[in-house]
Amino acid sequence: MAVAEAMYRRALEGEEKAWGPEHTSTLGTVNNLGVLYKDQGKMAEAEAMYRRALEGKEKAWGPEHTSTLDTVNNLGLLYADQGKMAEAEAMYRRALEGYEKAWGPEHTSTLNTVNNLGLLYADQGKKGDAEARDRRSLEGHGKAGGPEHTSTLDTVNNLGNLYADQGKMAEAEA
């Protein structure tokens, strides 16, 4: 990962010189650095990169552009990993609303955010809300990719975990 970080830093430095710190290509690299830092467990650095990317994308493209929403969703993932449930939910809800407007309720990016929200609700003990999100995600991913697609199977697994947590062992096993 050190090599990846060095490459992103090199790209970022070059893009900032060539295009400036608020160019959309520069902001894409900033977002990618956020992803890398999150994966490395550098949560403060990740948040700083995501916040910078989000602010720039909102200025360049607006708050409802899908690239802006991708960064919003990334912030949701970061907050969820940190246990900041209210912040994560706010980011997921914003991303979900925007994706539904931009791509519709059955687009895979929309469904991925539905899935993220379902996982968050399960972590919060909101089992009914989690199940509703998981079922929506399962139905949509099943239509989009088929019953054997990895996104469909991930959602099946999430629903199984939810049922096991509720003591519904027959449903979990199925």
TrEMBL record:
<protein>
    <submittedName>
        <fullName>Beta transducin-like protein het-e4s</fullName>
    </submittedName>
</protein>
<feature type="compositionally biased region" description="Polar residues">
    <location>
        <begin position="149"/>
        <end position="158"/>
    </location>
</feature>
<dbReference type="InterPro" id="IPR053137">
    <property type="entry name" value="NLR-like"/>
</dbReference>
<feature type="region of interest" description="Disordered">
    <location>
        <begin position="128"/>
        <end position="158"/>
    </location>
</feature>
<keyword id="KW-0802">TPR repeat</keyword>
<dbReference type="Pfam" id="PF13374">
    <property type="entry name" value="TPR_10"/>
</dbReference>
<dbReference type="Pfam" id="PF13424">
    <property type="entry name" value="TPR_12"/>
</dbReference>
<feature type="repeat" description="TPR">
    <location>
        <begin position="27"/>
        <end position="60"/>
    </location>
</feature>
<feature type="compositionally biased region" description="Basic and acidic residues">
    <location>
        <begin position="128"/>
        <end position="142"/>
    </location>
</feature>
<feature type="repeat" description="TPR">
    <location>
        <begin position="69"/>
        <end position="102"/>
    </location>
</feature>
<dbReference type="InterPro" id="IPR011990">
    <property type="entry name" value="TPR-like_helical_dom_sf"/>
</dbReference>
<dbReference type="InterPro" id="IPR019734">
    <property type="entry name" value="TPR_rpt"/>
</dbReference>
